[in-house]
Amino acid sequence: MNDCKCEYCGNLFQRERRIILRTRRQGKGLFCRRKCLSNSRVACEETFCLWCKVKIERRSSLSEYLRKCCSRDCAIRYVSNLPREETNRKISLALKGRPCTNLKYRKLDNVKIIVLNEKICVFCSKTFSTTNPKKKYCSFRCCGFRSAQKRVKRSLNEVHFAELCKTVFDEVLTNEPMFDGWDADVILPKFKIAILWNGPWHYRKVTATHSLKQSQMRDTIKLDRIIKNGYTPYVIRDDGRKNKKFVIAEFEKFKFFVEH
User: Fold this and answer.
1) Is the dihedral of CA 37, 40, 41, 43 positive or negative?
2) Yes or no: domain 152-259 corresponds to CATH 3.30.565.10
3) Which candidate, 8, 70, 65, places its Cα nearest to that of 35?
C-alpha cells in the first residue's frame, strides 16, 4: 500500500501500487472517495447557505435546497420556515399536470381535479366509480368472464337445434347476455325459456388445461341468474359429436315441454 494525496480535497489515503499505475496509465487522477471524483467532474460554484449564511461550494447537479445549504439539516430548517404562500406555490409547481387527490390542494392553480364517473358494469350490473370514461367493467374478474364468453364456440348440434327452433317459434335469440351479463345458447322471450346446450366439457375433464370445477361453478351462477330474471332454464346434455338424429329427438322433447 502506498500513500497518496487526493487531487480534489487534499486528504491523504492509501492505495495499492497496481491501482496507482493503472490510473496514471489511463490518464486519470487519484481521489480518496467517489464523492471527490464526482465533484471534480462537475463545475462548482461559491454561494452562501440559505439558513446559517456560511460560505459553501456545492455542485449544480444537486437539488435546489441541498445546493444552496451547507447540510441537509439546514435545508430542512429553511424549507420548514418558508411562508405558507411560498410552500403552496412550490407544491402547485410540483403537482403541475398530475391528478391531485388531496382536498387541501385542489384549489391551487395549474392542478388537475379528479372527476369520478358513476358507471354500471357491463357484466355484473354493479355501480362503480372510475376516472376512466372508457372503462366498462368494475373489476378484472368481470372483464375476464366477459371475454371468455365472447370466445365461446358454438357446436354444430347447437346451431342445428337453434335453426329448428326458428322454424317453429316466432322470436328466437342466440347467445344474448340478457341475464346480468350471462348468456344462454337459445332464448325464447315469448315463453320465458333459456336453453343451455351443455357439451362434454361441462361434465368431464376434456384437456389438461381444462378446469372442470370452474366450468361447473360458472354453470351454477348462470342458472341462478336465469331464474332471478324470471326465465325457466332448460338444459340439454350433449356428450357426442355431430348427430342430426340426436338433435331432432331433443327438439321433439323440447316442443312437448313447451306445449305442456
Assistant:
1) positive
2) no
3) 8
